[in-house]
Prior knowledge:
Bound molecules: aspartic acid, magnesium ion
Order of helices and strands: EHEHHHHHEHEEEHEEHHEEEHEEHEHEE
Distance between the termini: 62 Å
Shape: globular
Helix content: 25-40%
Largest sheet: 8 strands, mixed
Radius of gyration: 24 Å
Amino acid sequence: MQKIYVEKFGGASVNTSSAVKNVLSILGSESRKRIVVVSAMGKTTNALEKVVNLWHNEHRVEEKDFEALLSYHFEIIDGLFTKENDRMACRSLVALMVEECRAKILTLNPNDYDFLYDSIVSYGERLSTSIISSYMSAEGFSHRHVAAPDFIKTDNNFRTSDLKWKQTETLIKQNLLPLFDVCDTVLTQGFIGSTKEGYITTLGREGSDFSAAIFAYCSDAESMTIWKDVSGVMNADPKKMKNTVLLETVPYKEAIELSYYGASIIHPKTIKPLENKQIPLYVKSFNNPQDKGTVIYACKALCPLVPNYIFKDNQTLLSVYPKDFSFIAEENISKIFEVLSTFGIKVNMMQNSALSFSVCFDRNDNLLPEIIETLQQSYVVRYNNSLCLLTIRHYEENSVSNALNTEQYRILIEQKSRITLQCLVERKADS
Ligand code: ASP
Ligand code: MG
């Protein structure tokens, strides 16, 4: 059986022409059979979201948004191709795709937001791999360029679709793996899939990691690598804390816990499929590809064993008090959860006392008024917005004071288990 490797390049790794050249040099430095999964270039997904929102909210498009999309990709193309013919051919291809996107949005129902979103936002990934494939061809880099929606099959929940694992696995095994008989590299898009009718779907923001894990799982890959602009998985976000440490090895279970609590380095759905087939996941720096980075696999312990800090901003703490002065008991709790689940709220922390029940979740200004109104039928409701939930895995005695200046923050709730400490904090008004 041939060994297949999956490598994922995110938006930041293909955001300029020199970044794209670097991708090719990484791929060229080692010869192996690989599925290369690529995201939209730079901030293209955000730009397309803006186009979609304008069509949805105001039923109009702005020419300059398409012009910007075109000129951004043209700039990358112009930096890539040395032969004029290749450059012009790639420019025409991209111009056609952008024109198709512009024509298409006008035919879509502005009110059908999720469907509209997937049809349009998916152009980001398609533009990206089309350019990279043309560049690979111009450089004589043998490969096949395939459309991810031909393999990644999902249900019809546009924008947050769930994967149809069986169909996807069959398609990858039957139609994608045989391509390795004729080439070493199969290039495709992250983030996008399609329904059984063939409509384009997306897997949720930052979903390309998950796409790569799907390809890895379904092709029984030897390993998967995510190439990033950081040296690997760190024990905290370097933007939030000083003296961060690179994690060298991380057990699958630990990685799942970290992303569950909000560590944003890897899309949360990525690890489980890899764990199920014991496929190691490397997280490496595209700027220093020779560095070891992090490997997530079936090891026993985190190494080095240091506290891991996860900050989740924009948290809402909602507290309810039964109006009839009854105690908070199971039936109240189940009613409250029923309301939260109707609104699709994921609870990040909860706490109860005899007379109140508090839950913390990601702030959502659209839903909050409705949630409060529903709960107010039976409860007095209070809430507090703009909190931060700090989770520390493998905490030590002074971990909280390491992470937060306690003069600036007030701790509203603190909870500890043997391994995990969580505190919900509020910035003091005078700091
Ligand atoms: N392009 C998509 C996004 O920016 C998917 C990804 O990058 O993973 O969310
Ligand atoms: Mg991205």
